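Try this one yourself first.
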C-alpha cells in the first residue's frame, strides 16, 4: 500500500470521463488499497480514482470516519472505519427530496460550498469480489457517493454552484498552479 499524490485543480484530468472496470482483479484491489490509504491520510471521506491520476471507475468512501467525532465535534475523537469500495458505481434511483451539504474536495483543497443533491440514492456497483451489489444511501453517504460518481464523469462539485463562484475558484487555483510552476 502507498499514498498516491492527489490531482489538484486546474489539472485537466479532473474533467476526464473514467473508463469502466472489466474485471476486478489483484491490480484493481491494489489500487483500492492505495486509494483508502491516500483518502485516510488526506484526510477525506471519499476518493475517486481519477483524483490519484487513474481514469477508471473506482470509488472509495468512508463516512464513518466523519461521523465518529465525539459529541463536542472533536476532530481527534477515535475514528471507527467503515470502508466501502465501489467499482463501476451507478445511481439507479434518486429521491425527489433534496438536501444541502457543505461539500469540499481533496482536489480543491480548503474550499467548501453548499451543494444541493437528492437526499437519497440507490447505487449499483461491483464489490472487491466482482459481485454486483446495491446500496440505499441517505444523508452524508448519499452526498459523498454522488460527489464521487460525479468525479468519474468529469464533474466537480463546483459545477453545482453559481458560475460566478465557480469562475473565482478556478481562477484562484489556476494562479496558485502558475506560482508553483514558477517557484520550481
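Now uncover the answer:
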Amino acid at each position: 500500500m502507498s499514498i498516491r499524490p492527489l490531482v489538484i485543480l486546474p489539472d485537466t484530468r479532473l474533467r476526464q470521463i473514467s473508463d469502466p472496470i472489466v474485471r476486478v482483479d489483484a491490480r484493481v484491489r491494489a489500487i483500492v488499497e492505495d486509494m483508502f490509504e491516500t483518502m485516510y491520510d488526506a484526510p477525506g471521506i471519499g476518493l475517486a480514482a481519477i483524483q490519484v491520476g487513474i481514469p477508471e471507475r473506482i470509488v472509495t468512501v468512508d463516512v464513518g470516519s466523519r461521523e465518529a467525532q465525539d459529541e463536542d465535534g472533536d476532530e481527534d475523537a477515535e475514528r471507527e472505519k467503515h470502508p466501502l469500495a465501489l467499482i463501476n458505481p451507478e445511481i439507479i434511483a434518486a429521491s425527489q427530496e433534496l438536501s444541502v451539504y457543505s461539500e469540499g474536495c481533496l482536489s480543491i483543497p480548503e474550499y467548501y460550498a453548499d451543494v444541493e443533491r437528492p437526499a437519497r440514492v440507490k447505487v449499483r456497483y461491483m464489490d472487491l469480489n466482482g459481485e454486483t451489489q446495491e446500496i440505499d444511501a441517505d444523508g452524508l453517504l448519499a452526498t459523498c457517493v454522488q460527489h464521487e460518481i460525479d468525479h468519474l464523469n468529469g464533474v466537480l462539485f463546483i459545477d453545482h454552484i453559481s458560475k460566478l463562484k465557480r469562475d473565482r475558484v478556478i481562477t484562484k487555483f489556476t494562479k496558485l498552479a502558475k506560482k508553483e510552476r514558477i517557484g520550481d
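Discussion: DSSP finds four helices and seven strands in the chain. Confidence is low (pLDDT under 50) at residues 67-72.
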